[in-house]
């Protein structure tokens, strides 16, 4: 082809020709029948491919959707979700337990209760000792 | 959503994303494979294998990743593998396939394989049939290399630069093959010039 514009025609047809070369080609196409025929041939072939587009059977898509690989992804995602939920739950419970030990008023309250119990025990023991002393006096007097 | 976003969602187990992604590519990718291999069973197998391979990849992709060149690279490589294994390919005329689907009646749309555009074409059905035959004849006379570049550009809508990366050849070579294809088509179709207008 004498015009040496094949590449420009191809790029022009597929909208890849830079703007500065596009106008020049358009002007050339108005004068050159051979180049116009080349462009028309490209268009005709593309139109034919478009008009006779083969359609893939739906069964192929169904097979892909049911494929083991996709099921494995779903199973992995399921276990990942469950694991994450368990980790978050454990973290929340741990935090609650930790926080419960940090509360000062409850800690003091516990100490007060313990002290009261201890005092009651001591009083009981003192009473017992007094009783034992009294018994001792009885034996000594005899 | 972009193809890349859909793909990352697929890896999260999103069934809807996978369905959309397949729908976007099922016709152009399948058409590319079928016209290249001229074997329906092989084309369906390759199409299915490509998507299964995509799902096997557990790694999500970053912003630099582009899905279309990637999937067409896989299709191209799979087609090349097919050609290497095949010593000879059975030539199937598209019209033969249409004939089997419609019982030879071109006034009825094909039952399963092909969609015919409703766009206005030649005035009569006979002229349209003749035009299609003429273009098919011209296209089938292209060399395999020329056909492949033409089909890849048409169906993938990738730029010639991206195609040169898939084919691992300079962009000049890609365009040279397209030029030869264009010249061949022009010469054959010029004989039926009145049908092209």
Q: Your description of this structure?
A:
- The complex is a heterodimer of chains A (about 140) and B (about 200).
- Chain A is an all-alpha fold and about 140 residues long.
- Chain A is about 85% helix and about 0% strand.
- In chain B, about 70% of the residues lie in helices and about 0% in strands.
- In chain B, helix 3 (about 40-55) crosses helix 4.
- Residues about 90-120 of chain B have low confidence and may be disordered.
- Classes of the chains: A mainly alpha (about 140), B mainly alpha (about 200).
- At the A-B interface, helix 1, helix 3, strand 1, helix 4 and helix 5 of A face helix 2, helix 3, strand 1, helix 6 and helix 7 of B.
- Strand 1 (about 55) of chain A pairs antiparallel with strand 1 of chain B, so a sheet runs across the interface.
Strand content of chain A: under 5%
The largest inter-chain interface, given as chain pair and residues per side, is:
A-B, 39 and 58 residues
- Biggest sheet of chain A: strands, sense, closure? none
Please, what is the average pLDDT of chain A?
A: 79
Count the E strands of chain A.
1
Q: Tell me the quaternary state.
A: heterodimer
What spatial form of chain B do the alpha-carbon principal axes imply? globular
Mean pLDDT of chain B: 80
β-sheet strand percentage of chain B: under 5%
Shape of chain A: rod-shaped
Helix content of chain B: 55-70%
Helix content, binned percent of chain A: over 70%
Structural class of chain B: mainly alpha
Cα distance, first to last residue of chain B?
40 Å
Rg of chain A over CA atoms, rounded to whole Å, is: 48 Å
